[in-house]
Amino acid sequence: MVTRMKSFVKLFGSILDSSIWDTPGHIKLVWITMLAMADKYGEVDSSIPRLAVRAGVTREQCEEALKCFLSPDPDSRNKDNDGRRIDEIQGGWLLLNHEYYRNLMSKEDQTEQSRLRMAKHRSKKRDEV
After folding, report:
1. Residue 36 pLDDT > 80, yes or no?
2. pLDDT score for 117
3. In which order are the strands placed within the sheet that holds 92-95?
């Protein structure tokens, strides 16, 4: 039996304003698949054929998407790495802006946890009165 690590990715609504959203559907599918496959360091461990299968696209479409992600994007809102989204690493790819969004997610989660703690505290105070 193969045990697979469960992954979770928070998809920010700002992706809809990203230049990636202006690309053909198969490129978006590969991108979202890579987001879902990435480990906590932003590494996607896969081969092109396996990534294509997981994204539900042809190998050629997957290769086109990877070429897009490896290339500079002058329209990208993130100017780091000339707008490139990935780098090739041993065994797959590295999502270049993964750490930024992971940290952003952590800040949002902390804010939400604080809000919930305060609501619980206020409810407890109200019940004491």
Report:
1. yes
2. 80
3. 43-45, 92-95, 86-89
Report the amino acid identity of residue 13.
G
Q: Extract the tokens encoding 41.
A: 């360091």
Burial zone of 82 (CB within 10 Å; 0-12 exposed, 13-18 middle, 19+ buried): exposed
pTM: 0.75
Nearest-10 crossing angle of helices 25-37, 59-70: 80
Q: Which candidate, 105, 87, 107, places its Cα nearest to that of 96?
A: 87
| Torsion sign (Cα): 80, 82, 83, 85 | negative
Q: 78: domain CATH number?
A: 1.10.10.10
DSSP, res 74: T
The total number of structural domains that make up the chain = 1
